[in-house]
Amino acid sequence: MKSRETLILKMFVITLVIAIAGINLISAYNWQCFVKGEKINFCGSVQDRVCNEDECRFCVNGYDAVNKCYHYGGWNICNTVSPTCVFSGGTGGGGGGVGDTQAPTITLSNPKNGTMYKERVIPFIITTSEISDIYYTDLINGRGRWVKICTNCKSSSSNRNFNDGINRINIRAKDKAGNTAFKEITFFVDSKKPKIHKIDPRQGFANGNFSVQYSETNLKKINLTYGNALKGFKKIELSGCQNGNKLWCMAKNVNLSVYNGQEITYYFTVEDKAGSIISSREAKLKVDTVAPKINSFSNVTSGNKLTFKFSITETNFDVISYTDNFNGKLITKTLCSTLKNGICEKSLTFSKGSHSVVFKVLDEAGNSVTKSISFTI
């Protein structure tokens, strides 16, 4: 009887040990997770692995710290335990594995570094070499705040709104292993088109000088286009034009001789560095590039009175003025504002002393010719 009780007790103990061992065996099974680049060493004859994905999951039956290897588990048993995935923490199962220590590679297709954009809304296109959380911060106006682009992603394409002027941003990509990469770029936004306020001359005659008043802070160039259908159109780029508000820039001494005596059309275009272009209204002008011709000049003196006579050839006559340098004082007055059969004749009275008089014959296009005389009364 006693022997039977002893046998039953031994069987109970063996059963209990097996049960406990079974519990320990099952509880040793779990899902072990690895990140890209980690080497997984398996104990025994099971072939070692290297994780080639962003995340790899294997069923294991404990870790042998002495041999630095994992015991390969049974998938059916792992399916009965918690699906929670435990990361290796970079151990890689030993055997020289170092885990994922490589930061993601950031590729930014747009915006491009150093580029000028003419719209405030810019396509933001980014990719990374592995799944990451991607953010950016505005290094000028962001106040240290990071803006989410996407999480748990490898690419993103969206429109982002940026300020006019210079923009400097820093992009951060952090992978699942905690490796972080940064990429800093600078670009410019100019969403405001140039403005043209005035052009000169607006009407009348052209003599080769043209001016434009404009506003633009990122000026690239200003062009003048002029001509007509008969002789063709020409374009020139103005030089020395500056950035600013309501500034004037001039094209001086433009050669219009081929259009002399004809009518031309001209206009200006102003272009900024972002590629925005604006044109002025067209103006039509008669072309006169030839100065008036003095055919003859005479003067007759009678006491303190002198009579001057000019014979002038000029279709677009404007005025004959004179400047008298008398005792260090310059006095400018009009001699004739009209011609009679091409003749200007007028008598003037002068004070006693030495006089140096310069006559200026001017046409409506601004062309002029001068004649000087000196005399003493």
Task: Quickly describe the structure.
8% of the residues lie in helices and 56% in strands. The radius of gyration is 46 Å and the shape is rod-shaped. By secondary structure, it is mainly β.
Q: Could you please describe the fold and organization of this structure?
A:
The protein is built from two helices and 28 strands. It is about 10% helix and about 55% strand.
Notable traits:
4 domains, Immunoglobulin-like, 56% strand, mainly beta, 377 residues, 6-stranded mixed sheet, rod-shaped, 8% helix, 2 helices
Number of domains: 4
Task: From the alpha carbons, calculate the radius of gyration and give it in angstroms.
Answer: 46 Å
> Which oligomerization state do the chains in this entry correspond to?
single chain
Strand content: over 45%
Structural class designation? mainly beta
Query: Can you write the helix and strand succession as a string?
Result: HEEEEEHEEEEEEEEEEEEEEEEEEEEEEE
The CATH topology label of the largest domain is Immunoglobulin-like
Helix share of residues? under 10%
Low-confidence stretches: 10-27, 94-98
